[in-house]
Amino acid sequence: MTNTDLKALELLFQRPLEPVFTTRDQGKVVLELPDSFYTDRYRNDTVAVSNRFSQDVDLKIPVQELANKPNLDFAKKLGRKNQFSLFNDRHREIASQLITLFMGAPNLKQFVSLAAYTKDRLNPVLFQYAYAVAIAHRPDTREVPITNISQVFPSNFVEPSVFRDARQEAATIGDSGERVHVDIPRNYTASDREFEQRLAYFREDIGVNSHHWHWHLVYPTTGPTEVVNKDRRGELFYYMHHQILARYNVERFCNNLKRVQPLSNLRVEVPEGYFPKILSSVNNRTYPARVSDQLLKDVDREDAAIEIAEVERWRDRVLAAIDQGFVEDPSGTRTPLDEVRGIDILGNMIEASPVLSINSQFYGNLHNQGHTIISFAHDPDARHLEEFGVMGDVTTAMRDPIFYRWHGFIDSIFNKFKVRLDPYNAAQLGFDGVSVDYVEAKIGTSNARPNTLITYWQKSSADLAAGLDFGPAADGNIFASFTHLQNAPFTYTFNVTNRGARRTGTCRIFICPKVDERNQPLRLEDQRLLAIEMDKFTVELLPGENTVRRQSTESSVAIPFERSFRPIGAAYQPKAADELARFRFCGCGWPQHLLLPKGNAQGMLFDLFVMISDYSQDSVVQPNTPNDSCSTAYSFCGLKDKLYPDRRTMGFPFDRRLPNANLTEMVGAFQNMAKTDLKIVFNDRVVDKP
Ligand code: CUO
């Protein structure tokens, strides 16, 4: 790949609403298009337009003529100013065709041309989605970093008045070095009269929402088989969303709120309203709100139609399959829902992926259509010409309290399946001759008390320049400051005795809440459903005593702040090949700043649970594909072009019932497990990011 191909591909993530011939990279680079690429609006002015935008640039990148111009009629059904939803069947079908088109470009130069040609002819959100999926999956674009969605479409993530401040700042202060940071307010969506607002810092976190977008980008439901059919993707759909729920429920306990009530009845009013106060960049309107006590209705619109009764029928068929222990394909052939493959089959069938569902005609499209019904609750028959609310879009869905109620319901279906499986037995849980004798977690200062961890607010900033279309702001950096939860980094230390020859184990770390929102002790069955995975890694155990140390920042769940919000533009690109490799596709992962739940001022009590399992039962034989240096958050995101690197079902050992009465009894019965009391103390102060 030449540098200019790489550059061209990167530029197409910037200023998504502007024509492709305008300058990018802070006004320094322009793409030189063949005349035939200009849309009708500019067709007669190609010379004037291209001259205007090629003054003062450092680099002009010529774009090749296309061997065949694609017919884009399939995408016309979605206008350029409409909202694009991955939960909408028709939109997904369009996206699938577009991904197939992008994946099929014969070489890199033609891919650049195809992207440049299609960009101004398609809905910008659709384009950015399909383009990012193609970049993530084409073998020849491994080197191209995918710009974080919060930087491409910042308006989906931040309160809109900040853009006026940003444009003003950029227009009045020429040199980006002296521009101040504009402030994104905290807690702007509701007052404290609304109890759900206590969780706004979690739901509206930029890192949380961009993780969710990135996950769905890596695991699309439609498109070419090689893109969709990834190892254990259905199971990962279950597990990643299950972990979000566990984290959210624990976060609620920390804020004196009870667990989420699953949205199992679509025919009663929904008490939780939500007024998102963010703008859609395609049409410059705010996302519609949902009032409190809204009744959900059948959706009957030109762009989407779904009856509640249909969703209920699918729900009952899925539950019947779980009770019967098997699923049926369209020819009537039965596949058992066993303990290894069952959860993966259910995940693909419930989400649902039409490509991978065992029988999408019969089991339907339960989870996606739930999103649709909820997202159109304010205007189910389009009489007010309103588009969908935040639940219709993976970049914004996690902002709405109802997201967790709907996913709580979906998760409850998966749990019904898991509960039907036998409890884990001693052979599955144990690891003979290995004992964990001591566990501790301690923050990095020498006088810190062991097993007391700290959270606080931190003020950080991210560069929004790439997504600010049509403004001087795009010719420099615009930093927006925002306040988010943060935790003080800590180190785990475990003492492990190995009474045998040298061997390998998998170290699994979880925290389980000990009490609920009323300070009442939780049963093991509740604790296991609320267990938060913190980390998972392989350890080499020498004969005798071993000390295992691990930093919280190395977690297999999370990615660092810098990776979620890396700046855009040539000046920030690493030059050395190894660093460039690290810079690649790597935005999927839970935000490190939310690795720990908030805790509370008195110190919220958890069990810190550690288990070392037998690696010979965990290991996976990987295909001989190149290692991706960036795939560090594999617990939720898997590994690029590899198998999921742990043979056990996801969430092991807490994904199934356990043979003991409580956690203390369990760690007493199995030497390869240990636990200690852990306290998370929240410090209500704001610290500037160093
Ligand atoms: Cu991620 Cu419902 O699957 O939003």
From TrEMBL:
Keywords: Copper, Disulfide bond, Melanin biosynthesis, Metal-binding, Monooxygenase, Oxidoreductase, Secreted, Zymogen. It catalyses: 2 L-dopa + O2 = 2 L-dopaquinone + 2 H2O; L-tyrosine + O2 = L-dopaquinone + H2O. The keyword Cell membrane does not apply. It is found in: Secreted. GO terms for biological process: dopamine metabolic process; melanin biosynthetic process; melanotic encapsulation of foreign target. Its main location: secreted. Its EC number is 1.14.18.1. The keyword Cell inner membrane does not apply. Its cofactor is Cu(2+). Residues 400-411 form the Tyrosinase copper-binding domain. It is an enzyme of class 1 (oxidoreductase). GO terms for cellular component: extracellular region. GO terms for molecular function: catechol oxidase activity; metal ion binding; tyrosinase activity. Belongs to the tyrosinase family. This is tyrosinase. It comes from Drosophila madeirensis (Fruit fly).
